[in-house]
Amino acid sequence: MPTPHIEAAEGAFAETVLMPGDPLRAKFIADTFLEDVVQVNAVRNMFGYTGSYEGKRVSVMGSGMGIPSLSIYAKELITEYGVKNLIRVGSCGAVSKEVKVRDILVGMGASTDSGVNRARFGGYDFSAVADWGLTRAAVESAERQGIAVTVGTLFSADLFYTPLPEMFDRMEKLGVLGVEMEAAGLFGVCAEFGAKGLAVCTVSDHIRTGESLPSDEREKGFSDMMKVVLGSI
To answer: Is 0.85 surpassed by the pTM of this model?
Structure first.
């Protein structure tokens, strides 16, 4: 049934929902990769669509930026619409010298400076990890298509403009590959409400080298990532 944030009717979403941060990226994904598309949400311009990919029903919906925004939509998709699998498809900034701009990262876990997972775990540290089945399916999809991916951990930041740039050194030392703003929250919501989550990101900029993609490529230049994700469903 409709919620304060989603107007879709019961059954409007597929069991698998792809979640880019930008609602316009959700529209681009629906228009470019899906067939028989129906728009199912436009509340607050957080566009949601359901269509099919190679005969399989799939939905895509924006999450907004940051853990608080994503958590609202992810929770309601799970508890009110019966969504089983939520896959973040987005961008990240690289901190590791082992990855480059345009590389695809499969996030098997996410650290964070947010307090949301401690709040849901009684003040203790929560291990925010992706679902193994979704992770394995994404890697196998990439292998079948000859697309290189790197599997590792992400850092979900509350602040885009961090006042603690020295944290990047700590992240790199501890093996974090990239920084984004949603994955740890998604994994926490999925764990709390019984769904499966995954985050797959294209490296849009490199914090160490300063290299970055222009804004139009950030929105539209992720075809290999989408091939990996859609091929895993």
So the answer is: yes
